[in-house]
């Protein structure tokens, strides 16, 4: 076989391998089935075919907090009821705009609604930011920390007041994910 034909076959093999579905997408079922509000949220993301993957263990309470958190193949989901009875926060790795990023999602904060949200990141990407262009009861943030960086995230809803801003419900439970 000529070098050119061999090189062409090699490229075709790489392209075909690159199109393979992730293991979690082809799994008939996950060994651990999330339940309750975390399970409902996971199913809304696609369940066994969710971008966050399968649960890697059962959900657990969070020390000194109301709520629960569960680890998944590609991130975490937490129920954080102090910010709303059905408030969920999730962090997971995903390709967004052709780049490997981390997606942070939250909501619904109902019955609470906010003028803006404060987000704190720690780990492989640190800082606090104010997000004013979000819906009043939920939101989403995508960051690009670089490959292999684990980033933790928490969010707090706030209202703008003439006498000073208020953030009465406090910070959510932390969730984290590692970038691809």
How is this fold's topology laid out?
Elements: H1 3-18, H2 23-26, H3 36-44, E1 60-61, E2 68-72, E3 75-79, E4 88-96, E5 99-107, E6 116-123, E7 127-131, E8 139-143, E9 150-158, E10 175-178
Antiparallel strand pairs: 1-2, 2-3, 3-4, 4-5, 5-8, 6-7, 6-9, 9-10
Give a quick summary of the entry.
This protein is an alpha+beta fold and 180 residues long. It contains three helices and ten strands; from the N terminus they run αααββββββββββ.
Notable traits:
16% helix; alpha+beta; disordered N terminus; single chain; 180 residues; 4-stranded antiparallel beta sheet; Immunoglobulin-like
Describe it:
The protein contains 3 helices and 10 strands; from the N terminus they run αααββββββββββ. Helix content is 16%, strand content 34%. With 180 residues, it is an alpha+beta fold. The relative contact order is 0.15. The chain has helices at 3-18, 23-26, 36-44; strands at 60-61, 68-72, 75-79, 88-96, 99-107, 116-123, 127-131, 139-143, 150-158, 175-178. It has a domain at 61-178: Immunoglobulin-like (Sandwich). The longest helix is centred in the first third of the chain and has 16 residues, at 3-18. The strands form 2 sheets. Strands 1-2-3-4-5-8 form a 6-stranded antiparallel beta sheet, covered by helices on one side.
Largest sheet: 6 strands, antiparallel
- CATH domain topology of one domain: Immunoglobulin-like
Q: Provide the succession of SSEs.
A: HHHEEEEEEEEEE
- Flag low-confidence runs: 1-27
Total DSSP helices: 3
Task: Specify the CATH homologous superfamily of one domain.
Answer: Immunoglobulins
């Amino acid at each position: 076989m000529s070098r050119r034909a061999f090189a062409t076959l090699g490229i075709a093999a790489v392209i075909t391998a690159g199109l393979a579905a992730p293991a979690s997408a082809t799994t008939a079922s996950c060994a651990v089935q999330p339940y309750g509000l975390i399970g409902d949220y996971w199913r809304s993301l696609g369940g066994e075919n969710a971008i966050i993957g399968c649960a890697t263990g059962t959900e657990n309470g969070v020390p000194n907090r109301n709520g629960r958190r569960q680890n998944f193949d590609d991130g975490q989901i937490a129920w954080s009821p102090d910010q709303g009875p059905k408030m969920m926060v999730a962090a997971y790795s995903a390709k967004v705009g052709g780049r490997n990023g981390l997606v942070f999602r939250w909501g619904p904060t109902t019955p609470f609604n906010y003028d803006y949200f404060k987000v704190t990141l720690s780990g492989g990407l640190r800082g606090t930011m104010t997000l004013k262009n979000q819906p009043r009861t939920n939101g989403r943030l995508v960051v690009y920390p670089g490959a292999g960086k684990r980033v933790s995230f928490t969010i707090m809803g706030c209202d703008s007041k003439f006498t000073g801003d208020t953030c009465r419900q406090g910070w959510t439970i932390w969730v984290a994910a590692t970038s691809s």
